[in-house]
Design a protein that fits this description.
The protein is of the alpha+beta class. It is 21% helix and 25% strand. The strands form three sheets. The chain has a six-stranded mixed sheet, with helices on both faces. The longest helix has 14 residues, at 116-129. Bound molecules: guanosine-5'-triphosphate (GTP) and magnesium ion.
């Protein structure tokens, strides 16, 4: 006799009742319930504690690779606050010949003054540069429920009677987005487990649609150059903004330095005195200003104290900061610290250095705001 298979409603993993230490565990009594969730999802939901999983990047890639063979609509979600860091490289490999919609999530984090139309055009231009031509682009806040109805209606139209796969990097808010759509349709909230820990969804979760097709949540791909992988789980809260970002403006002279906690450093090298630099970072992250000539010593002495995060326990494993120089040639350029935020420079002809932990990315782009 074969046993009926159960899958966790929260994360998609196949349920097993044998080994509490392995993923997918649920006590056998849980199988009698209408909605089955695994122990890991239970703990995430009720205690906000995460149990590490044994799945590797390859496991997640395998799941996504299967999508290229389907006839479906692909919805790629990016985190608008970490656009470059949360971009899913090689999407065309997963998408195959299928149509693609691009959804920029977490728009609630950007200052209210930002015009949505401009941002959508910016996203289109960035996508093109990154080699993707989506059929359409949307901006939403899954957390706040902004523009969900409109985007869901567009998905319904574009899917043309096909299945829909929601894909993207880990932590961009795919599951939160799908929960919102479910809520719009059925009124039921928080069906799928979401959390601020990367790697929450473990396997494809099928949400049945009226015509026998399905909306699928998928596990996020891990971008190893994201800052999130270099900080302690507790510090994730410090670097991840939860509310609208309040831009901080610094008037800097040549030879001045800003530290973002101890996670990143910005040197204003040359380009004239009294220049404005606008920092878009989590409101909770400390910015410390100093003279560039004192910066190395300050960092050595005060990393983990004045300059924190990182904090005491993970100082030993914290990678050294590596420097990249940028010559700003165009007005309104962003210097991006992947996963942490960015600095907007208004004037051209400025030389700066950006420092991030080895493995994290820095880049410049046309200003988002
Ligand atoms: N500020 C803000 N935060 C959001 C939004 N949507 C999701 N989040 C937060 O982003 C984090 C990740 O959300 P999830 O929905 O679990 O992300 P995911 O893409 O499903 O992640 P994986 O399952 O790991 O791939 C959570 O802390 C959410 O609360 C949003 O619109 N605005
Ligand atoms: Mg998820």
């Amino acid at each position: 006799m074969t046993e009926l298979e159960h899958f966790c409603t929260g994360c998609g993993i196949k349920i097993q009742t044998e080994n509490p230490e392995e993923i997918g565990y649920a006590p056998s009594s849980a199988l009698e319930k209408e909605i089955v969730i695994c122990q890991r999802c239970f703990r995430l939901k009720h205690y906000n504690e995460v149990q590490d999983v044994s799945l590797t990047d390859d496991d997640f890639l395998k799941i996504l690779n299967g999508i290229s063979k389907t006839d479906s609509l692909i919805v790629m979600v990016v985190d608008i606050f970490d656009f470059n860091g949360s971009w899913l490289p090689g999407l065309h490999r997963f998408a195959g010949k299928n149509n693609v919609l691009l959804v920029g999530n977490k728009v609630d984090l950007l200052p209210k003054s930002v015009k949505h139309n401009k941002l959508i055009n910016w996203m289109k231009a960035q996508a093109k540069e990154l080699g993707l031509r989506p059929d359409d682009v949307f901006l939403v806040s899954a957390a706040k429920g902004w523009l969900i109805k409109e985007t869901a209606a567009a998905i319904e139209e574009y899917r043309n009677g096909k299945d829909v796969y929601v894909v993207g990097c880990t932590n961009v808010g795919k599951s939160t987005f799908i929960n919102r759509i479910i809520k719009e349709v059925t009124g039921e909230g928080d069906m799928i487990t979401t959390s601020h820990f990367p790697g929450t969804t473990l396997d494809i979760i099928e949400i049945p649609l009226d015509d026998g097709k399905a909306l699928m949540d998928t596990p996020g791909i891990i971008n190893h150059h994201q800052m999130a992988h270099f900080v302690d789980k507790r510090d994730l809260k410090v670097i991840t903004p939860k509310k609208e970002i309040k831009p901080k403006i610094f008037q800097l002279n040549e030879g001045q330095t800003l530290f973002f906690g101890g996670l990143a450093r910005f040197d204003y090298v040359s380009g004239g005195d009294k220049r404005s630099f606008v920092c878009y970072l989590s409101n909770e992250l400390n910015i410390h200003r100093t003279k560039t000539e004192n910066a190395d010593e300050l960092y050595e002495k005060h990393l983990g104290e004045l300059l924190t995060p990182p904090r005491g326990t993970d100082l030993d494993s914290f990678p050294e900061l590596v420097k990249q120089e940028f010559m700003i040639k165009e007005a309104k350029t962003d210097i991006v610290f992947s996963g942490l935020g960015w600095i907007t420079v208004n004037d051209p002809g400025i030389k700066v250095s950006a420092y991030v932990p080895k493995g994290v990315q820095t880049l410049i782009r046309k200003s988002l705001i």
